[in-house]
Amino acid sequence: xxxxxxxxxxxxxxxxxxxxxxxSTDPDENLEARLEKSDPGGNGNxxxxxRIKFGIDPTGSDIxxxxxxxxxxxxxxxxxxxxxxxxxxxxxARIGDPTGKSEVRKQLTEAEVLQNAQTYxxxxxxxxxxxxxxxxxxxxxxxxxxxLDLGKIQELLATMTVGQMLAKEGFSERYxxxxxxxxxxxxxPLMQGYDSVALEADVELGGTDQKFNLAVGRDLQRHFGxxxxxGLLMPILIGTDGVQKMSKSLGNFVGLQExxxxxxxxxxxxxxxxxxxxxxxxxNLPLAELPENPRDRQKLLALTVVSQYHGEAAxxxxxxxxxxxxxxxxxQADAVxxxxxxxxxxPAKLFxxxxxxxxxxxxxxxxxxxxxxxxxxxxxRVEDLNLVFESxxxxxxKVLQVGKNKFVRLGL
Length: 412
Hints:
Blueprint: H1 8-11, E1 16-18, H2 31-37, E2 51-56, H3 65-79, E3 83-88, H4 110-124, E4 136-140, H5 142-145, H6 150-157, H7 162-166, H8 171-176, H9 183-199, E5 203-207, H10 211-223, E6 230-234, H11 260-267, H12 272-282, H13 294-310, H14 312-326, E7 338-340, E8 348-349, H15 350-356, H16 363-371, E9 375-377, E10 380-381, E11 388-389, E12 399-402, E13 406-411
Parallel strand pairs: 2-3, 2-5, 3-4, 5-6, 7-13
Antiparallel strand pairs: 1-6, 8-11, 9-10, 9-12, 12-13
């Protein structure tokens, strides 16, 4: 068979595909060969369209751009005519993926997991195709994992050794440090792997830190007499600081639910060292056609990504507002998100308003930001830690700002 059909979308930004024998025409060794043999358009080829699995555990309420790169690859498979399976790990979320963790993860309640799951689905709507029939399945792994009896669990456990588990990142570190490893954590990769069996996945997507878990899925499919899936790994996105991986806890993230101005303001400051990776992983723009001027690249990146989540009109408004704010004309910036002062009991100190508006994580953080000179009101730096406002009318229409990326317009 001649692999005449190119699949540039498959390789864009991809770190690794396994197994991968690039010169082979065997559809079990070369994903391109499997894709060419598949039949997403109903053209009479012998194989059906492929089932592409991506699992996400709803352990929090927010998704950021670092998470989006795998979901964007899932969309690329949809656009090629294949079936995307967005697997909500409502069962496994209650264990927590131990990958890369130096301590046991907090277990969540069923109510917390289901609430987080719904927010995840809402956040990925701008990325995935929810409308074309047959292109998307949303599944919950409690469908089959709740039904596992002790005999089936014993069968799963018998497919791996303790030595194999201890070689896994996270477990290995904790074992060397003599930190506790609980037996239920060993079940996590086996349950993720069994998800692939239950879904009959042809391809599973994940970050580079998920290779062990994806490989377990291949082994379990083989054990249960299925055709083993391919693993496709995407890189870990570096955060807006240009140093560490994007993470909410590190504060170097861009959330999918952020308002257009906040998202734009962060992305237009993307470090030169990371901007090509951001274009490759977060957009579909041809890399060879990017502007030469670094500042123009930053603006194009911000405008393109914000347009994906908020629409082009909102992105252009955010760009205009960002320019206005940089020039110090806070009052004239139209795209600044509003915060109602109705819930604030006056007289009120500014640090409390900073906390209540979400610009700061709490009153202590607000005080630190004021002390550090990061807080501005209508463009004027605030230096008084105990600044008090007697009524909401004093603040109506003013723009409260923390740092370079966080703004709200105060209103009644």
